[in-house]
Amino acid sequence: MSGLFGLANLPYGVCSVDGSAPRAVTRLGDHVVDLATLLDDDVFAGPSLNPFMAQGRARWDVVRTAIGEALAGGLPADGVHAIGDVRMHLPFEVADYVDFYASEHHASNLGRLFRPDSPDPLTPNWRHLPIGYTGRASSIVVSGTDVVRPCGQRLVDGVPELGPSLRLDLEAEVGFVVGAGSPMGTPIPAVEAAKHIFGVVLFNDWSARDVQAWEYVPLGPHLGKSFASTISPWVVPLAALDHARVEVPRQQPAPLPYLALDEPWGLDIDLEVELNGEVISRPPYRSMYWSPAQMLAHLTVGGAPTRTGDLFASGTVSGPELDQVGSLIERGKGFLEDGDEVVLRATAPGVDGSRIGFGEARGRIREARS
Amino acid sequence: MSGLFGLANLPYGVCSVDGSAPRAVTRLGDHVVDLATLLDDDVFAGPSLNPFMAQGRARWDVVRTAIGEALAGGLPADGVHAIGDVRMHLPFEVADYVDFYASEHHASNLGRLFRPDSPDPLTPNWRHLPIGYTGRASSIVVSGTDVVRPCGQRLVDGVPELGPSLRLDLEAEVGFVVGAGSPMGTPIPAVEAAKHIFGVVLFNDWSARDVQAWEYVPLGPHLGKSFASTISPWVVPLAALDHARVEVPRQQPAPLPYLALDEPWGLDIDLEVELNGEVISRPPYRSMYWSPAQMLAHLTVGGAPTRTGDLFASGTVSGPELDQVGSLIERGKGFLEDGDEVVLRATAPGVDGSRIGFGEARGRIREARS
Fold it and tell me: What's the complex ipTM?
């Protein structure tokens, strides 16, 4: 496991030790390293990565190099803790959160389930723009936080009742963290996305399918999604994924110019969905139709500003095969029970055939409040 | 005009004078009064109302009484400026923002326009729950901020193109500001909403109808709304609206118990939509089907937390008559042109037959970026 968090990775997180004030750290193998101590830089002394994230790409690159050099000889003497001795916190303050719908396989599968009478499972707009909707920022929690089964209105024999969701699902996603924001009225072209995207997390967009099905026409999901979303505690720097860059699948029709890419923006991330200790699916991120650069370009083309801490997620990652789907509804074998524990994991190619790891996005379902 | 901002109102805002650091103020007639000075309380010395809003209902009530007593004899000697000499700022930091769809008249009008083939203009869920969706917090701006015509994908002869919206609309709404938040997993019953709602603003939810129509199926509006929303600079305390409380229209079927009300939660607010100096509509807020207490109860029933600075808006306020609609699309006489200026205003009953006023929500349309 240490190999997944070697010098080619160096993710960013925030942790506390025995109730101490949370501080920014990186991870090397099975240890965390305090960054304010390592680099003598107070930007890392606070409880979130936002101040560092706001400094922008040039500074991120300098700091990443400095961390790599400082740790090249091994762990330092000070500011080091075993990963098992620390508590990880939400690594950044989430500003606005947008969830996309970028997997053609997932969107097709869901279209067949939610709109069975429609001749095409994809809506007419799907291949023209990365569909997304804004979600609730305040219910994003860090890995390890229990998820209480949500209540909501759902149909029972055709009549809406309030009660615990009976179709509670997971959604395996990848989230992209905006470090350097952009002012209102200034779109971010797809070709400049890397200047703004600080890093990548795993994201479980827990979904109450019965609540969602009843509420979502015409204005989209709300309570079906707003009760909780889980992110991994480690933000993997975009720079650590250089070796994971692949071409996106062929996009037909060709995207409009503002969505055009000048470099490979697909990401060869292998996800893994574990349910109660058993791996039930291995969604391949490289199968995603819309890339994060295109999502960010679309999100801002109307003039919306972005802020440090904005998070946009890919939507459920589903490959073409049944053992590659990123949600239970697509798998067709039932939904989450109380006590179930879901863990998302992922790896991606590093240097020289090695792999880099992501943190886990773990959550256990607790029974609904009575 | 002074009468609208008398002792029965005492709204909260944030302003600066000649480039000074923004501070919290109240308004009496045509003057603003610095609250940190008036009350000798540093909670008002910062650039947003959030610290005060977080203190909760009991403190809000004490402070409102104290302000009223301090100003009963007229304007104080220090910390007073003429309204024309100050610049108003966004009065609070917006946390999560949710927009509802609470007017039966508006939802019916839009349903007929967007889904002409549907036998019922209201979707089957509409009378069972206050439909809402999460919107972008970072593009909420204060009155007086120009609105650049957004670009986005919209259909031209059936083909999606990127370009300036050709169907730019306004939406006259009322926004409700959450002062005291609530933890994840703890719903706010409708009967406790007043403990959490700090105050009320006017809200223009600018909408690009052509962008919205192309993008919104299946996950709801995104770029059609995310480019800008304008709020009035004055937060009218909920307590100032005691005399505006009226029964909501009859709700049939009876709402589920979590949406039941034990006091009148309709608000007799008269809105006014001015376009280029001419009042084109007078939407009556008392005609709104779903009340703010029900919106907040619904928003949280699934377990979503709320935070100080959360904003939820009513959705377009439209009455039953054509001169009471809160959007141009319902009026049917065209959309906004570059240079058009929209001003939302409102008044509500105060004590003894007087009226209290809201601040303006003003915005002028600037041409799209080239």
Answer: 0.97
